[in-house]
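Please supply some protein, with fold tokens.
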Amino acid sequence: MEERTDILQNIRSFRQELAQCAKDPEHLPKLLVVTKNQPISSILTLQEAGISEIGENHLQEIVRKKAILGKYFAFHMIGRLQTNKINYIISNVSMVQSVDHFRYAELIHKKSQVAGIRMPILVQVNIGGEPQKAGVLPEDTEQLVRQCAKLSGIRVFGLMAMMPNVADLESLRPLFRSMRALYERLRSQAIDGVDVIELSMGMSGDWRIAAQEGATMVRVGSAIFGMRA
């Protein structure tokens, strides 16, 4: 009972602060709760706060949790993709946020066609240029989006980014601004078959700056559930 109360209070506090931080107070960023490593009981508590979409990094966790939680929540895949697991993604998620290469887009497209659906995706951008991280480089983003636009089994709804892990969070502000600028440039292109409406950026450590710099969605876990032991 205490854990449930803490989670609900954390959500209330988070939403209040998010409203204060948001670049556009009339259009607050969506809250995507990341449920990695969380028990089913804690995740179920999210329903009481009106949360119906959650994010997971690993497909195995999505499949396991959806068997229990699928009637309550839609799942977003936010982790690195693997070609041999694309088939399982189609039937288990409502959005793939981590498409960073045309080969993944093409595989999702083909599997989606077989399933008779059109999978919403975000293109993941490696805005920090980190070699160890997934993501298309900023200068190659528009080309990938245009390639994806030609595939009838998917639809691009915007961009996603993960920021570098740094001690000085304020040093990330230029990167968040660069992501917003890239998002706006894509919007201005009005590419056929693309709806640039989502800019998913900001996690539990840096979501405040992300909201200030124009995120339309923030992905947070420990800010809601607290730190896991």
User: Anything to note?
Assistant: The mean pLDDT is 94. The radius of gyration is 17 Å. DSSP finds nine helices and eight strands in the chain.
